[in-house]
Amino acid sequence: MAFVATRYAARTVGRNLRRTVLSIVGIAIGCVLALFMESLNRGKGELIARAGASGGVGHLRVVPEGWRERRDVRLRLADWQADLAAARAEPGVVLATSRARAQVLLAMGTHVVPVEMVGVEPALEPKTFRYVQAMAEGRYLRDGDPGGVVVGRAIADRLSAGVDDEIVATAMGKGGEIQSAMFRIVGIVATGSEDADATICQVARPDLERFLGVPGAGEVTIIVSDYRRIDAIRAALLPKLAPGDDVVTLSDLTPEIEGHLAQDAATARVISAIILLIVLLGVASAQLAAVLERRREFAVLSALGMSGTRMVRLIVEEALMLGVAGALVALAIGLPLVWRFARGGLDFGRYLGGSYSFAGVLLEPVIYGDFGWWIAPYVFVVSIAATTVASLYPAWYAARTDPAVALRVAQ
Amino acid sequence: MSSIVRARGLTKAFGAGSQQVWALRGVDLDVGAGEFLALVGPSGSGKTTLLNLLGALDAPTGGELLVLDRPVASLSKRERARLRLMSIGFVFQAYNLVPVLTARENVEFVLELQGMGGGRRGRAAEILRELGLGDLADRRINELSGGQQQRVAVARAVAARPAIVLADEPTANLDGENAETLMHLMRDLRDRHGMTFIFSTHDPRVVAHAVRVVTLVDGRVARDEPKPGEAPHEILSASGVLHAAPGG
């Protein structure tokens, strides 16, 4: 059997139905907005993971010793084949592919373009960098088809080159001497982002090895099945690599994006806090009005010996009931909304174009909200915390009621 | 008979400086256990102020006031609340019941505040039966008549068997029959449980039941009749009450 105080609190909540309903709706709207922002923030984690999976970065990358400090593309793995085999054998790894990079100068006729040339495994690369699947002209690289190069539209335009044109690549070789090689453009990629198109220059990795005279791969790019396990897989893989080789994570590879999204998340949380503060003030105002209306009642309770602490508890209990009701309404409104957001996503493509690059990484401009078990506890905690905080001042005000003064005024 | 209330030179002022108004100007009063005492006097004579002090609702400005041997002036707000909760019951002119609770819940609430455990529901039902409200225990307050509401208020005041019950104009809103019934019930409770009843009143029917009548005039005790020889109307006429408006 509930305490009389609890029944009293519950019936008081229902005393002024219009005010109670308005308070609950206010709390619910605030919670839904906060929920939407939180879902968006959490969805941005997935956005980065998607960039890793399809934008060429990878979720994890095996790199040579010293790469973390120097980020020098001329560095090569101690034993890339052993590293590749270890990565492919690791549970949770969906795909692993080797790459090598070099700073080169592409030239055709009187046109030159400096670019980072990437030696890839032609059969696997489109699975880690899905934008090269959409060729604007020509085709992608093939195994056993030496001398081919795929470039982005921006590079082709700067060179005034087209498919089947031959271009000269010049780079620094193993001993510091200048090396040159001729490549034939087999395909031109148009990602939708000119910045990204200006960075795409891919050849088969054996071609790059021959061109530079430097054997081996400079990295093994890894895609995992669950991006939330990136750190766990890194920890498991690290001891299985060739001595000296290291594994870096997506966060290590894209610190600018992480920082940018963290800043976005902080801004979104500040906005949520402002929304909740406005809701909180509204609820506090309604609660205070309710307390003022019941001043005589509180005076009588005080005269009967109810302590200030118990009075605070009574009003906080009333607020808790409003909070629970607000949370239930928020879930009823918010769950379908966030579900829809998580399924369909928010497409910023019309404002940013088909793709968007940030810090050289291609991002698909669609953000999907996160939908999970966290939603119910989140809504309840936000709603109950907001209403409890909102009730503190009215509760303190009620607890200060001087019974003699209040009863004299009432008379 | 031992004193459960002792006042010496009791004063109470409201406001400050030139705005200061003296409601009590030096009251001397001793009340023994089990008394059935009426406070009478014209409006503004200080009856309600004195009741508030005796009930530890307010602190005196000067003088000495002991309630159940506790010096009210030096008690903190928390201690005064505790004293009220454990030892003093209140009956108000306007009943002042909690409207969203039933009659039984109103009574039970005080017992709950006192920290009483499982037996409070039974105790509340028992006292309501004692006051002839057994059948109405589960009615909401707005479903009860004025007389019934005031009886619930009395039940709430006496449920925890306080040493003192203070009633401010308890019959002011009741018709003659209900007023008579209420006074009989209060006398009966006093006789059976030995509680001390102190009530302010303008009502001759109430004065008729009093065993002792204290008349206040201008914040001082003008008369103190342990067993009034005069008829209630004569006492009230002598103190100017029958020519004055209620309140005070």
Features:
heterodimer; A: 411 residues; alpha+beta; 2 domains; two-stranded antiparallel sheet; elongated; B: 248 residues; 4-stranded antiparallel beta sheet; 8 helices
Instruction: Please work out how many helical segments of chain A DSSP would assign.
Output: 16
| Radius of gyration based on Cα positions of chain A | 31 Å
What gap, in angstroms, lies between the N and C termini of chain B? 29 Å
Q: What is the mean pLDDT of chain B?
A: 87
Radius of gyration of chain B: 18 Å
* Low-pLDDT sequence parts of chain A: none
Q: How would you characterize the largest beta sheet of chain B? A: 6 strands, mixed
Global shape of chain B: globular
* Global geometry of chain A: elongated
Portion of residues within helices of chain B: 25-40%
- Give the N-to-C terminal Cα separation of chain A: 36 Å
Count the E strands of chain A.
14
Structure described in brief:
The complex is a heterodimer of chains A (411) and B (248). Chain A has 411 residues and is α+β, with helices and mostly antiparallel strands.
